[in-house]
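User: what does the whole thing look like in 3D?
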Amino acid sequence: MDYYSQTISRLIAELGHLPGVGTKSAQRLAFHIINMPEEQVRQLADTIVTAKTQVRFCKECCTLTDSDLCPICSSDKRDHRQIMVVENSRDLAAYEKTGQYNGVYHVLQGAISPMLGIGPNDIRLKELLVRLQGDVDEVIIATNSTVEGEATAMYLSKLLKPTGIRVTRIASGVPVGGDLEYIDEVTLLKAFENRKEL
Ligand code: ZN
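Assistant: Here's the predicted 3D structure for the full assembly of 198 residues, as structure tokens:
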């Protein structure tokens, strides 16, 4: 790193902290940024800061949004009695892309992982329980087919049993260990349609 100016070394180090960016990519990105027009660099930096400061959790479903209520939760065209529980906003986006789901969501912002020390209190479960005190017909558990996703689904189904609300789990059309966001829309739709009672 001593071959570069201190400032560039710092930029490379910062970029290298991003997920999926190794040292080589960080170097490439850093030099790309240095060669960009200043105006463009300012725009990029501004956009990052604005996103960080403006984006918040929807007070209903806990997805990331620009306002207190996300567009889905504030829509009266959606069926608010059907709640699909997903791990993150990217999974929500994957289901939205199918264009076939008309209910609302609950975004846990994570999954239970004893290995990583993430327990039920570390994800947005309390917020879900509050919502279930309202009129809800069905909770569809659409966490990933990973160890964490399954552990979360199991915990949720046990937690929800006493409420008497219909609880379903998306089908195994979703490959084991698969992240929802990488699965094509047809597979996702099949998994939803073939969901089973828990
Ligand atoms: Zn919302």
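In plain terms: Strands lie at 56-57, 64-65, 79-86, 103-107, 138-141, 166-169, 196-197. Helices lie at 6-16, 23-35, 38-54, 89-98, 125-131, 147-160, 185-193.
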